[in-house]
């Protein structure tokens, strides 16, 4: 079993860049395409708790459905927001990465670097051409 898990959406550039950064460290993570295999309530509650962020930070507020469901209503409880995320996994912000060093919503994708057990093995450029690392071993721009 992989020591690293990524809750991934292959249609998302940030998620693809994060997965590529994990692989650039020499690791092959367990990839969970959460739109096809959504986490259950217990797992989602655990992921939120492990990030140390409020639930609202893990809701994809840019998603059209977020507005349609009026999830910006401050009267909604965390339980109601969680219900919406479970009913509509597209509302789960991504990518969420779990490693032995922590759990993080990796937005931007470079946020994964702080929780990877192994250093980067080579230079890395995002899909949009932005240089993240000039060289391996955790080197930076």
- What is the CA-CA span between the terminal residues? 33 Å
CATH superfamily membership, which one? Glutaredoxin
CATH topology: Glutaredoxin
Taking strands numbered 1, 2, ... along the chain, how are they ordered across the largest sheet? 2-1-3-4
Mean pLDDT: 94
Q: Which regions are unreliable across 5 or more consecutive residues at pLDDT < 50? A: none
State the domain count: 1
What proportion of the residues form beta strands (DSSP E)? 5-15%
Briefly note the structural class of the backbone.
Answer: alpha+beta
Helix content: 25-40%
* Highest-level CATH class: Alpha Beta
**Order of SSEs, N→C?**
EHEHHHEEEE
Commentary on this structure:
- The chain is α+β, with helices and mostly antiparallel strands and 141 residues long.
- The chain has one domain: Glutaredoxin.
- It has 4 helices and 6 strands.
- The chain has helices at 13-24, 41-51, 64-68, 78-87, and strands spanning 5-8, 30-33, 96-99, 102-105, 124-125, 131-133.
- The strands form 2 sheets. The protein has a 4-stranded mixed beta sheet. Strands 5-6 form a two-stranded antiparallel ribbon.
- It starts with a strand and ends in an 8-residue tail after the last strand.
- The model has no long low-confidence stretch (mean pLDDT 94).
């Amino acid at each position: 079993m992989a020591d690293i898990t990524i809750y991934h959406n292959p249609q998302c550039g940030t998620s693809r860049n994060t997965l590529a950064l994990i692989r650039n460290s020499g690791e092959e993570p367990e990839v969970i395409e959460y739109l096809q295999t959504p986490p259950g309530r217990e797992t989602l509650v655990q992921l939120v708790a492990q990030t140390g962020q409020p639930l609202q930070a893990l809701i994809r507020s840019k998603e059209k459905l977020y507005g349609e469901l009026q999830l910006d209503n401050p009267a909604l409880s965390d339980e109601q927001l969680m219900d919406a995320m479970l009913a509509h996994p597209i509302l789960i912000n991504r990518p969420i990465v779990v490693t032995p060093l922590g759990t993080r919503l990796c937005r931007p994708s470079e946020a994964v670097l702080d929780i990877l057990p192994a250093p980067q093995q080579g230079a890395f450029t995002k899909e949009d051409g932005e240089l993240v690392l000039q060289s391996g071993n955790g080197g930076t721009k």
